[in-house]
C-alpha cells in the first residue's frame, strides 16, 4: 500500500515536471519567434542606416564641391 502511494506521488511529480517542460518549450518557442522578428527588424534598420549614410556622404561631397567652387571664385 505504501509503495503504491509512493508510486502515485512519483507519477504526480513526473506529470508536474512534464507540464513544466511543456510550458518552458512553449516559452522558448515564443522567445525564438520574437528573436527572429527582432533580428529581421534589426537587419531592416541596418539597411536604412546604410542608405542614410550613403545619402549623407553624397550630400557631403556636394557641399564640399560647392565650397571648393566658392573658394575658387573668392581667390
Would you spell out the secondary-structure blueprint of this structure?
Elements: H1 2-74
How would you briefly describe this protein structure?
The chain is mainly alpha-helical and 75 residues long. It has 1 helix and no strands.
What structural category do the secondary elements indicate? Answer: mainly alpha
| Tally of separate helices | 1
Mean pLDDT: 96
Number of strands: 0
Structure description:
- The chain has 75 residues and is mostly helical.
- It has one helix at residues 2-74.
- The radius of gyration is 32 Å and the shape is rod-shaped.
Top keywords for this entry?
Cell_div_ZapB, mainly alpha, rod-shaped, 75 residues, 1 helix, DUF904 domain-containing protein
